[in-house]
Amino acid sequence: KNMSTLIKNGRIVTAVDDYNADIFIDGEKITQIGKNLEIGAEKVIDASNRLVIPGGIDPHTHFDMPFGGTMSADDFESGPRAAAFGGTTCVIDFAIQTKGESTLKGLDTWHEKADGKALIDYAFHMIITDMPDSRLGEMRKLADEGITSYKLFMAYPGVLYVDDGTLYRAFRQAGDNGTRICMHAENGIVIDEIIKEAVADGHTEPKWHGLTRPTRMEAEGVYRSIAIAEVAKVPLYIVHLSCSDALEEVKRARMRGIDVIAETCPQYLFLDKSYYEKQGFEGAKWVMTPALREKWNQDELWQGLKFRDLETIATDHCPFCFKEQKELGLESFTKIPNGAPGVENRMSLIYNGGVVKGRMDLNRFVEVTSTAAAKAFGLFPKKGTIAVGTDADIVIFDPERKETISVNNSCTHHMRVDYSAYEGFEVQGFTETVLSRGRVIIENNEQKIEKGGQFVKRALTGSRLD
Ligand code: URP
Ligand code: ZN
Ligand code: ZN
Q1: Taking CB atoms and a 6 Å cutoff, what residues make up the pocket around ligand 1?
Q2: Hey, how many other C-beta atoms are within 10 angstroms of the C-beta on 383?
Q3: Distance 45 CA to ligand 3 centre (A)
């Protein structure tokens, strides 16, 4: 028999609503919302003085990912658990095509990594590393399997990089299929030349990761991928946009009516390149791509969120332990695995930096942390809002509670990594109780269930633009 739950007295906030009501959940779905519901339920949760919001959706994580000569430190058990503690109930992770092999085989590999392990629901984008004509048909099969978005890289030559011809072929096919392209937009070919110059000059420290990645090379990648997407007629999603130069290119294209949306991440909203100047090797903790930028870019990104030129906030969670993993690059910044942790901290960081600091209202907070990603990636309205008939993925959020984010704070750090990228950050606004398809998985910051998250097949995300 289905478990039933009644959430009473909460303030329900979605991307457009804000009202006080009770929510009745029968099994996995919300079946009634109303004032003073008088229905018997097996479980009753009092949400007085709490926000009741759609569970966060993080459309960019890398669990159990081989990268930089090692594996990202969170797998599909620890990553989704940490996400849940932080108020995220669905992630879209990245399956990877091994170059020269079938994308469908890559998908099987990621199902093996994830299925049966995760606490929350998850979906996959597919990272495409080559796309000869003979494989184009696989993209339709992927869409049928619920993989309706594909990430391609202009960065990381020799690893994940693909040339413009491959971009164009994959873009055409994705557009024909009614699916979306995710773009890592940075000119990796030129960046590699800049890195060679720095290495030849004897530079080895972490800060050279930032110094070898000019914002203009991100802006160029954004411009070029938008131009190719326009010609190929495919909806585009720029991942992890980090700076004003890149944002300007997105704005210009949107002004021309091009279907491009963009994601930014907490690291680009709260951290800046001065982190690379820390003592000794410590800057390696923030070696990620794109790199942290000059601080003034942060205001531009917040403005972009406010005026809707930026659509979503994802974490690009790609954790590597400082000891032994980041230390692979002790001799040279070029060997530091790229990526940083953050899947657990996103909701509190954005609530604090956005709502508490007056940069966005509550509805926009829900939109950028949940609803917009659901809409961009074929999860809406199953996920991303609170309404009758939707999955009961619900977060009960305490808007007053303060915490200090730290690797040593057992409330803010369940990620399997030995440092926090936001060490010492004080946040107001904290996740208390979390429901995933009606199951109370976290209650008063305690985990109640071990697993039960499911793979979510996503719907088509865009229609052919001609
Ligand atoms: O440094 C990063 N971002 N690592 C993860 C891979 C990617 O490019 O998203
Ligand atoms: Zn990327
Ligand atoms: Zn990423």
Answers
A1: 62, 184, 288-289, 316, 318, 338-339
A2: 26
A3: 36
Instruction: Tell me what percent of the chain is helix, strand and coil, each rounded to the nearest 5.
Output: 30, 25, 45
* Pocket test residue of 127, 162, 289, 343 for ligand 1, highest count of atoms within 8 A of CB: 289
Using alpha carbons, select from 389, 393, 402 the residue that is nearest to residue 452: 393
pLDDT in tens, 231-278: 999 999 999 999 999 999 999 999 999 999 999 999 999 999 999 999
Both tokens of residue 423?
Answer: 């060490």
- Cα(240) to centroid of ligand 3, in Å? 7
pLDDT at 461: 86
464 pLDDT more than 80? no
Cβ pair 103, 137 in contact under 8 A = no
> Helices 136-144 and 164-176: crossing angle, nearest 10°?
40
DSSP letters for 107-144: HHHHHHHHTTT-SSEEEEEEE-S---GGGHHHHHHHHH
Ligand 3 center to residue 68 CA distance, Å?
Answer: 13
Strands 4-13 and 51-54: parallel
The pTM (predicted TM-score) of the whole model is 0.98
